[in-house]
Amino acid sequence: MIALLVITDGRRDCIEQTIASANANLIGPITSKVIVNDSGDEADRLWLASKFPEFAVIHHKTRLGFAQSINTAWAYLRRSDERFVFHLEDDFTFNREIPLRSLARILDREPGLVQIALRRQPWNDAEKKAGGIVEQHPDAYTERLCDDGAWLEQRLFFTTNPSLYRVELCRLGWPIGPHSEGHFSHQLLADPALRFGYWGSRDSGEAVTHIGHVRAGTGY
Question: How would you classify residue 79: left for phi > 0, otherwise alpha for psi between -120 and 50, otherwise beta?
C-alpha cells in the first residue's frame, strides 16, 4: 500500500538517524522500502545494502543531482503496485508517531489534496523571523478536520520535505534544472482544484526535525 522512499547522497550519519526514527514513528502499512543513492560512491552503495537490507537500493554511479534522484525514484515507483509514497530525504527525524493509515484515508477522501506533509522547524531567515513555516503566511492556511485528524491546506507550494502522496503523482515526472521544486509547484498550481496539506492543527507544532545542517546534494 505505502512505499517508503529515502533519498540520500552519502551522509551516513544522517541516514542512520533518519531510518531509525522512521522505523520507530511511521505507524501503518509500509509494504516496500527503497533508497535512491546519489553519492556516486560504490562503497557507499555496499554500505547501504548491508546496513539496510530491508531496502531496495538504487544507485547512481555518478552524481546526477536532486531532480534526477526524484525522477529515478518515481520511475521505480511507477512500476510498483503501491498506492502511496512516503517521501523522505536522509536528514530528518520524527518528533512523534505519524498515523500513515489516517493520512492515506484523507488523501482517498480528498482527491484534490496532492500531499500531506510534516512540518519542520523554521529553517531560512524568513521562517525564523515569522516563527515557523505556517506562521510566515498564516492567512494562506485553512484548517480542515475529519475523523482521521486535522490538517492545514494551502496553495503556496509542493514540498519534498517528509510527506505522503499518491504513486499516480509520479507519472508527471519531475522537472530537471535549478529550482525544480518551485517549477513543479507552479505546474501543479495551474490546476485551481489542487491543494497541499500539512498534517496537524495550526497549533500542533513541528512533526519532524531537519538535521542536515550542510546540504550535500546538487541541483536543487
Answer: alpha
Q: Which residues pair with 144 in a beta bridge?
A: 151
127 close to 133: Cβ distance less than 8 angstroms: yes
- Taking each helix axis from N to C end, the angle separating 180-189 and 66-78, rounded to the nearest 10 degrees, works out to 50
Query: Dihedral angle at the C-alpha atoms of 199, 203, 209, 212, nearest 10 degrees?
Result: 90
Return the closest-CA partner of residue 72 out of 11, 6, 161: 6
Q: Are 163 and 87 in contact (CB under 8 A)?
A: yes
Residue 8 has pLDDT above 80, yes or no: yes
SS3 213: coil
Query: Helix or strand or coil: residue 142?
Result: strand
Identify the band that residue 131 occupies on the pLDDT scale cut at 50, 70 and 90: confident
pTM above 0.85, yes or no: yes
Contact in structure between 148 and 141 (CB atoms under 8 Å): no
Q: How far apart are CA 145 and CA 140, in angstroms?
A: 17
Sequential DSSP letters for 14-77: HHHHHHHHHHHHEES-EEEEEEEE-S--HHHHHHHHHH-TTSEEEE-SS---HHHHHHHHHHHH
Instruction: Give CATH for domain 2-210.
Output: 3.90.550.10
Among the listed residues 99, 117, 108, 111, the one whose alpha carbon sits nearest the alpha carbon of residue 196: 117
Does pLDDT of 179 surpass 50? yes
